[in-house]
Write a structure and sequence with these properties.
Chains: A alpha+beta, B alpha/beta, C alpha/beta
Radius of gyration of chain B: 22 Å
Order of helices and strands of chain A: HHHHEHHEEEH
Order of helices and strands of chain B: HHHHEHHEHEHEHHEEHEEHEHHHHHH
Shape of chain B: globular
Structural class of chain B: alpha/beta
Radius of gyration of chain A: 17 Å
Number of domains of chain B: 3
CATH topology of the largest domain in chain A: Glutaredoxin
CATH class of the largest domain in chain B: Alpha Beta
Distance between the termini of chain A: 16 Å
Number of strands of chain B: 9
Helix content of chain A: 40-55%
Distance between the termini of chain B: 62 Å
Strand content of chain A: 5-15%
Number of helices of chain B: 18
CATH architecture of the largest domain in chain B: 3-Layer(aba) Sandwich
Largest sheet of chain A: 4 strands, mixed
Oligomer: heterotrimer
Structural class of chain A: alpha+beta
CATH topology of the largest domain in chain B: Rossmann fold
Strand order of the largest sheet of chain A: 2-1-3-4
Largest sheet of chain B: 5 strands, mixed
Helix content of chain B: 40-55%
Chain lengths: 154, 426, 572
């Protein structure tokens, strides 16, 4: 669906800004918005562009920097830290050959920090796009990465 | 068994995607009963129960319900706060993933007794599974007449919408959540006025934690007086506790207030998985105090939290065994608040970062005596002057650590000094 | 009425009063920082934190209403410590090179730190240097000085209804910037400067052009003349230690002469001229069924706004230049000829209560020789005050002087330009008298004076009712413009000022300008008007003389060439 099609599903009221951004981002493989897309949203809702930018900059889900196809978010809060026996983050940076905040050259993976995912009973946990994986060890991690590589950019 | 399954009685026994499973286990029976009763009687039951909010602040629920009931301005909103994001907490996720209709039933009862007709469940964006389950439950409830117009043929309309967060912990704060629902960044508002008089779109709004709503049916069923007999005088009823960290059986347990922590950790949690000794526990979640092992015979209730000037009661227990670096633990907690602060008020926006920087000095063996004093002083400034609960409770772990583990700080300062000496000599 | 105690002083206070206001009523000024009259109470800075006996924690005085029996301690050790710590936190994330800042010695953060006795921050500096935005002629943004009080966001979004700025990001990453972190010249900023007026520090300031003026005053090759806007004479005094609303015309002229200007002229003269040109423009449009409503065009921020957002109504704007620009054009033609000076050697400086005028002066249309600007430099009230202080002039003890002849004659109609409704009243005094062919029964048009942001009135001329409107602030301008765009405007003539209460509330005026202060200045303006011998533009013999000797008649070919302009849609 194009942005215009997504917009038309919502009333022209400013309280729908976050809904619209969430809905449209779901379709974007870069998990980010371009300047012209945000301008179009501002125009549709008749709100200042600065307000749209302010919302995008505030919420962690939104970004204006293009990301990889799979965004791997590593929880770095206390419960996951306590149960991390194999240094999850170091393993990921080694496996993917990128650091936190970076994207692999083939555009497949971006590695990020995230705050607590609410899966402390399954710590350590990561989130890959909309799926959360818990009770991780090195083998499980490798399997997740392999599956993503297999699915590629689909 | 120390567990008491009042609101978790259906956990694991039903398919959350099936309303029939819920109905088969007394689902929506209490709603039927409630709709026949007088609204004031229902409000009175909640008051008798002395129920306190289950999201962390522990505010008396009856006070909020009555304040909303008194408002005549329509529309009135019932907002269910499912933006659970505090490290160590996952009980709300369990509730949604295991017994979604109980929440709907509770919201309906709250809406009826306060004459509100619009409901919203605000679920954090990362809980994709819970969002799906709640949306499905609402559709099913509507189909069977438990939501919508003329619910169960009574003159009462109520509908619920699910809205998603977008990655911001602070949106669990009541006004930040409301700002988010209005399409804005989640920066809180000045209080007064309070949500019950001017909330969503400046309309009267009740906003409570999801567990609070899930508790209402149980209270109506057993009567407020009976509910108040459970737990302790200051903290009645049961609480869903999230148990995590270095324990064998991580998970959610429902226990009455007044049980000693040690019992919960050993009997329900099974003690540490590694067999190592417990060094300390963070109580409530990242917003809560860190207490040493020798205090684990303390009971869990709101009065205890108030002793620490902590407003948390979200009910998490993060067990920390020996062997972890003490200051790394403080750093993790501090990093969380530094990242999640909304940035609106100066002490929280600037202060959390300075707290983190000082902790890093301790980690790097660079801390001096003065750093400890600045840390303590600053922690109290944040605690006393921040605009909302996030900033006020962010330094609680540090304040308690300085109180109970002062020796650890001193030792690190001494070690830093001798390291400095060693470098100077070489 | 609740009885409360503040610092052990008992007082009765109206229900609903905040602790801050209650304290003020009893001469206790609790320190604040983000607080500003006319703006929302954001309670962001937490500086006004005070202790209430019996309550845990501290509360902010600005947002906490009193209740019966409340006992407040303003400077308890806890409150004082908190205030200091918060101020030090702000300083740790602030470019505190005060001596290189426009706001040095006139900065709210400096005053606060001084009040609290802070000499050094207990925190390490955590400032991440960011680039400045110096793209525009009017305003400079320096994010390294921003203390995130949010006043600029508030005034731009809520008073002006534009929303150029917003808070981007969370926590420490919060910065205040335009959309996409663009420069001011790349977005719909009108340069009204209200943001610079409310900023407590040097994060948004006017572009400082004083160095350029010092330089040219020292150049023996240049003939430097200055024109002074109507609003300056009732505002400058405040910056130099005089009471609010002091009328300082005579001293102002003396000061300008001491600074080294060859001639000191009154923009009021060209304001009278604007009345003539615009008055006749209105008469023509009414007679010949031209485009109505006619809208005033002397406010450059309004023009920018219209060009950005309402290009459809550009034909409704008066084609008259602003008085500032009319002066510049005449200075480099008529005046140059009359005085036999090479126009290229004339440097025109104008003193304005306005930041947008700096950009107006640089518009390509505002150059009669298509090379040099007609007005070379624009200084705000604040910049002039600075220059006077820099020169060490003892302003209060100056003798009074008069504007230079022969153009010193001005009317009361011109001076009221500084007030919202003034341009309209000035124009009506001429239009009504000219059309009716008889003297006005009453010179003051009381029905159109007032403080509401949109006012309307019916004016009878020759037994015909004409509907007029007056708007101030850009959010009101938006409403009026939208009506015209939608084809439902009931008006014949409209005055629009971008700044609250008109030019007296301009973006270049003394700091801490508020509606209350502006209204005081307006009272002084009407007082000056009442005392003037000539009160209508067309009665001004200097203006008549200009027409007979040079321009011919209002709207003539040469008048059009020099005194009129055109507008165009602004796009990026």
């Amino acid at each position: 669906m194009s942005l215009a099609e997504v917009l038309n599903r919502f009333p022209k009221q400013k309280e729908y800004l976050i809904e619209i951004l969430l809905e449209y981002q779901r379709q974007k493989s870069t998990h980010s918005f371009t300047e012209s897309e945000l301008k179009e949203v501002a125009k549709y809702l008749n709100i200042p562009e600065s307000r749209v930018c302010s919302v995008v900059a505030f919420y962690s889900f939104f970004s204006t920097q293009p990301k990889g196809h799979y965004v791997i978010q590593v929880c770095h809060d206390l419960p996951c830290h306590l149960n991390d026996h194999f240094d999850l983050l170091a393993s990921l940076t080694t496996l993917l050959e990128i650091n936190i905040g970076e994207t692999t050259k083939d555009g497949l993976f971006t590695l990020e920090h995230t705050s607590c995912l609410g899966h402390c009973d399954k710590s350590p946990a990561i989130r890959v796009n909309e799926k959360i994986y818990g009770n991780l060890n090195l083998d499980k991690l490798k399997a997740i990465i392999a599956e993503c590589k297999e699915n590629g950019h689909d | 068994m120390i567990e008491m399954k009042l609101i978790s009685k259906r956990f694991g026994k039903i398919n959350p995607m099936s309303i029939d499973d819920f109905l088969a286990l007394d689902g929506y029976k209490i709603l039927k009963k409630a709709l026949k009763k007088d609204k004031l009687d229902l409000l009175d039951e909640i008051q008798q129960s002395k129920l306190r909010g289950r999201g962390g602040a522990g505010f008396p629920v009856a006070v909020k319900l009555m304040a909303l009931a008194k408002e005549s301005k329509q529309p009135k909103y019932i907002i269910c706060n499912a933006d659970e994001g505090e490290p160590g907490n996952f009980k709300d996720r369990y509730l949604m993933e295991n017994d979604p209709h109980e929440i709907i039933e509770g919201m309906c009862i709250a809406a009826y007794m306060t004459s509100a007709n619009k409901g919203i469940i605000y679920i954090r964006g990362e809980y994709n599974k819970a969002i799906k389950i709640m949306k499905n439950a609402i559709v099913q409830a509507k189909e069977k007449g438990y939501l919508g117009e003329n619910i169960l043929n009574f003159d009462f309309d109520f509908d619920i919408e699910v809205r998603s967060g977008a990655g911001s912990y602070v949106c669990g704060e009541e006004f930040s959540l409301i700002e988010s629902l209005e399409g804005k960044p989640g920066r809180t508002r000045v209080k007064p006025p309070f949500p019950t008089s001017k909330g969503l779109f400046n309309q009267p709004t009740l906003i409570n934690n999801i567990e609070t709503f899930a508790t209402l049916p149980a209270i109506i069923e057993m009567s407020g007086k009976a509910y108040a007999k459970i737990g302790t005088p200051s903290s009645t009823g049961t609480k869903l506790l999230s148990l995590s960290g270095n324990v064998k059986n991580r998970g959610v347990y429902e226990v009455p207030f007044g049980i000693p922590m040690r019992k919960i950790i050993e009997e329900l949690g099974g003690g540490t998985e590694s067999g190592k000794k417990i060094r300390m526990v963070q109580l409530g979640g990242a917003c809560g105090p860190i207490i040493p092992e020798y205090m684990l015979d303390m009971v869990i209730d709101f009065e205890r939290f108030e002793e620490f000037e902590s407003k948390t009661g979200a009910g998490a227990l993060i067990v920390i065994e020996e062997g972890h670096d003490f200051f790394e633990i403080l750093k993790k907690i501090s990093e969380f608040f530094t990242h999640e602060s909304c940035g609106k008020c100066t002490p929280c926006r600037e202060g959390n970062y300075h707290l983190l920087k000082i902790i890093e000095k301790f980690i790097n063996y660079e801390a001096k005596e003065k750093d400890m004093y600045v840390l303590e002083n600053l922690a109290h400034v944040l605690h006393h002057t921040s605009l909302c609960g996030l900033g006020q409770s962010a330094p609680t772990a540090i304040i308690s650590a300085l109180h109970y583990f002062r020796g650890t700080f001193q030792k690190r300062i001494e070690a830093s000094l001798s390291q400095e000496d060693a470098y100077a000599k070489n | 009425m609740p009885k409360i105690k503040i610092n052990n002083i008992e007082m009765f206070v109206e229900t609903g009063t905040t602790i801050l206001d209650a304290a003020k009523e009893h001469n206790i000024n609790i320190p604040t920082l983000c607080h500003y009259p006319d703006l929302n109470i954001n309670s962001d800075c937490r500086i006004c934190s005070v202790e209430i006996i019996g309550r845990k924690g501290l509360v902010t005085a600005c947002s906490t209403p009193v209740y019966e029996g409340m006992e407040v301690k303003v400077n308890s050790p806890r409150a004082l410590n908190a205030r200091k710590a918060i101020t030090e936190m702000i300083l740790a994330n602030h470019d505190a090179n005060c001596t290189s800042c426009v706001r040095n010695m006139n900065c709210e953060l400096q005053r606060l730190a001084d009040n609290l006795g802070i000499h050094r921050s207990r925190f390490d500096s955590v400032l991440n240097e960011m680039p400045l935005d110096t793209s525009s002629y009017s305003l400079v943004r320096n994010p390294n000085r921003c203390i995130k009080c949010g006043r600029c966001v508030d005034v731009c979004a809520n008073i002006q209804g534009i929303g150029v700025l917003d808070i981007m990001g969370r926590s420490r990453d919060s910065i205040i910037s335009p959309a996409f972190n663009k420069a001011l010249t790349e977005i719909f900023c009108t340069y009204c400067g209200q943001c610079s007026s409310v900023c407590p520090v040097g994060a948004i300031t006017e572009k400082d052009d004083t160095d350029e003026v010092w330089h040219v005053l020292d150049d023996p090759d240049k003939h430097v003349i200055v024109q002074v806007a109507p609003a300056i004479r009732v505002s400058l005094g405040e910056e130099l230690g005089l009471p609010l609303g002091s009328i300082v015309t005579g001293k102002l002229i003396s000061a300008l002469k001491m600074l080294g200007f060859s001639k000191v002229f009154d923009t009021d003269f060209t304001a009278d001229l604007t009345v003539m040109e615009e008055g006749y423009e209105l008469i023509n449009r009414i007679k010949n069924k031209g485009k109505l409503p006619l809208i005033t065009s002397c406010c450059p921020a309004w023009i920018n706004f219209a060009e950005h957002e309402f290009p459809e109504i550009l034909d409704n704007l008066s084609s008259c230049k602003s008085p500032q620009q009319m002066f510049g054009a005449l200075a480099k033609s008529y005046y140059a000829q009359r005085e036999d000076i090479d126009p290229k050697k004339i440097h025109v400086v104008s003193i304005m209560p306005c930041t947008a005028k700096k950009t107006e002066a640089k518009r390509s249309e505002m150059s009669i020789n298509q090379e040099d600007p007609d007005v070379d430099t624009v200084l705000t009230t604040r910049e002039l005050a600075k220059m006077i202080k820099q020169m060490g002039i003892d302003f209060n003890n100056l003798k009074e002087s008069k504007f230079d002849k022969p153009d010193e004659l001005t009317s009361g109609a011109a001076i009221i330009f500084g007030a919202s409704g003034g341009v309209m009243e000035a124009a009506l005094r001429t239009v009504k008298e000219v059309l009716e062919g008889k003297p006005l029964k009453r010179i003051d048009f009381d029905s159109i004076r007032g403080s509401e942001t949109i006012r309307e009135a019916d004016i009878e001329i020759n037994d015909v009712q004409y509907k007029i409107a007056i708007a101030h602030t850009l959010s009101s301008a938006r409403k009026i413009a939208q009506q015209i765009k939608d084809g439902v405007s009931p008006y014949h003539f409209i005055e629009i000022m971008a700044c609250p209460n008109g030019c007296v509330g301009g973006g270049g005026q003394p700091y801490a300008t508020s509606s209350k202060l502006s209204r005081e200045r307006i009272q002084s303006i009407y007082q000056v008007d009442r005392l003037m011998k000539i009160r209508k533009a067309h009665d001004n013999p200097a203006v008549s003389n200009l027409y007979t000797s040079y321009l011919g008649e209002p709207g003539s070919h040469i008048a059009h060439k020099l005194l009129h302009t055109h507008y165009h849609q602004k796009k990026f």
